[in-house]
Design brief:
Helix content is 64%, strand content 0%. The protein has a domain of 54 residues. The protein has 124 residues and is mainly α.
Amino acid sequence: MKTQMKSLADELRKSIGTGEVIPSNKDPVMGAKKKKPDAAKNEAAAAKGRKALDIISRIRDFDCSDQKHLLHPRIDARTVALLGRLKLASGLEMNRVIAFSIVYLFERHPEIKSFIKESLENFE
């Protein structure tokens, strides 16, 4: 009794030559089903992207050419790394982003200005 061992490649060559197809146990199409994208998630991601682009354009439009005061803010390493990546992604200088952020903070929260004014009036 002779036993012949055939490799998978030999079997495939034989099946290709005869035109017969060897069925597989696993169907690659069935295993690779893709989920349909959720429209709400796509819309939320698009809205976040638009908002980020809006802020970046506002920072680019921020005029800091007349600012002559120089500050040395102490920023943690993660924030510095994030600002560095923002510079690579958008070309925005760190100083421009920091200056814009401070002005934006005071514009969005005028109660800080009121607190400062009241504190200085009551200082004496």
